[in-house]
Amino acid sequence: MAEHQGQITILYVVNQLSSVGGIEKIVLDKADGLIQLGYRVLIVATEEDLCSRQLFFQHNPEIQFCRNLYKTLSHKQVDIVMFTRPMFREMALCRLRFPSVKYMLELHACYEIFNYGESYFETFVPQPDVSFRQMCDWLFPYLVAVVVSSKNDDSKKWGYDNVKCIYNFTYLQKSDRAHPDRRENVVVAVGRYTAQKGFSYLIRAWKYVSSQFPDWHLEIWGDGEEKDKMLALIKQQGLQNTIHLMGFSSDLYSQYWRSSLFVMSSLYEGFGIVLVEAQACGLPAIAFNLPSGPSDIINNGIDGYLCKYLDEKDLADKLMLLMSNHDLRNQMSEAALNNAQRFTPEVIMPQWDELFRQAIVTPCRQPLKAWFNALRVLFKYFKSDVKKCLFRL
To answer: What is the pLDDT of residue 251?
Structure first.
C-alpha cells in the first residue's frame, strides 16, 4: 500500500463543545495529543459556532475550529472525519457527497444503554418506526472503524467486525499533596446533576454512612437539571450538614488531592474519565459494577470497589469499610496511582496514531449497498421532516 503523503488531517464532528462534560474534555485532549504527533486537527460543531464561543476547557491553540461541516469538507483537504456521536443524517450525507474521505465514529455511551428507559439514543431516531439499531445496521458496517471506550462493548455485542476499543486518557497531575496526612475526611463525587449519574442512590446511601461517620462530608461537584430534586432529597434525609452540592470547579484536581475517597453512583457510563482523574490523584474509587466504565477502570478490592448494581447498602458498606481503615485507604491510594498509569497519553495516543495511519492506507470501500443504505437514512429523515412541517401547518 502506498504511504500517505504529507500531514494527515482529522476533522472531529461534535454537536457542541462549550459545555462542561467528559466528551468535551476528551475530544480537546485528543486533539492536543494528535497535534503533538504531527496531525492537523479541525473541529466543527453541528449545534454551535465554535469560532465565536468561549470554551470551558483549555485547548491547544493549533486546533482549527470550523463553522460548517459541509463547507469544511468542500474547501479543506480532510483525510478522516471522526463523528463523536451517531449523527445519522450527517454521516449519510457526507458519505454520498464526499466518498473519498474516510469516516469513523466514536461511541461515548455503552451498548447496554438500550436497556434503560432514559435512552441517550432516542434523540437520533427520526421517527418511531425506525429504531436506532436499524440506523446502525444501515451505516456502521461501512465506516472504517467504530471506536468504543469499553472492552465489554466488543464486536460480538455490536455484530460488526470494525468495532475497536481504545480507552480514554487523562494527563497525570504531579503533586506533593498526596501525603495521607494532608487529606481531609471528604468523599468526592463529580458529574452533571442528571438522572444518569444516580446521585439519589448516593444520597440515600450516605444516610447509612453519616450516622456512623458524622465527621465525614460528601461533596458533589457539578450542576444540572436535577439540582432541586437533589436538594429536596438531602433535606428529606436530614443530611444538609454532611452533603454539599459544590457546583462547577475549574480545578477539580485540587479537590481530588484534598479528599480521601471518590464515589461514582452512575446508572450507566461509557467510560467515566473522572474515575481515572480521581485515581491519578491517589483516590480509591467506589462505583456500581456496570457493564462498562467502572469495570474497565477499577480493579475490585485492589484500588477500589465495584458494588452491587444500585445497591445503596453495599455502596454505603464499601464507603464505611475504607473510611474506617486508614491503612487500607493508603494501600488502595498507592494502587490507584499505579493503575492510572494505564490511562496516560503515552499509552493511549499511539493506539489512535496506529488506527488513523492504518485507515489512511486502507482503500475506500463504496459498495452499492453502502450508497443505498445512506439514501435510506436520508429518506427517513426527509419523511420525518415533511411530517413535522405538515403538523405545524
So the answer is: 85
Return d(Cα 346, Cα 258) in angstroms, integer.
27
Question: Exposed, middle or buried: residue 290 (CB in 10 Å: 0-12, 13-18, 19+)?
Answer: buried
Q: What is the pLDDT of residue 386?
A: 66
Q: For residues 196, 198, 200 and 202, what is the CA-based torsion angle, rounded to 10 degrees?
A: -160
pLDDT at residue 257, as a whole number:
92
Element spanning 319, H or E: helix 312-323
CA distances from 342 to 104, 285, 369 (A): 24, 16, 40
- Grid coordinates 466488543 are at which residue? 154
What separation in angstroms does the CA of 179 have from each of 17, 73, 188, 317? 36, 51, 17, 25
| Residue 124 in this model has a pLDDT that exceeds 50 | no
- Rounded-to-integer distance, Cα 29 and Cα 224, Å: 24
CA torsion through residues 266, 269, 274, 280, sign: positive
Task: Measure the CA–CA gap between 246 and 189, rounded to whole angstroms.
Answer: 10
> How far, CA to CA in Å, does 237 sit from each of 131, 192, 225, 309?
41, 21, 20, 22
Query: Which structural domains are found in the chain, ordered by start?
Result: 9-169+346-392 (3.40.50.2000), 180-343 (3.40.50.2000)
Residue located via cell numbers 431516531: 125
pLDDT in tens, 212-251: 999 999 999 999 999 999 999 999 999 999 999 998 887 8
Taking only the tens place, the pLDDT of each residue in 14-63 is 988 877 777 888 899 999 999 999 999 999 988 877 777 777 777 889 99
CA–CA distance, 41 with 18 (Å, rounded to integer): 17
Radius of gyration of the chain (CA): 22
Buried b vs exposed e over 132-165: b needs ≥16 C-beta within 10 Å? beebbebbbbbbbbbbbbbebbeeebbebebbeb
CA pair distance 267, 369, nearest whole angstrom: 37
Instruction: Round to whole Å and give the CA distance between 101 and 39.
Output: 16
Q: Which helix (H) or strand (E) holds 43?
A: strand 40-45
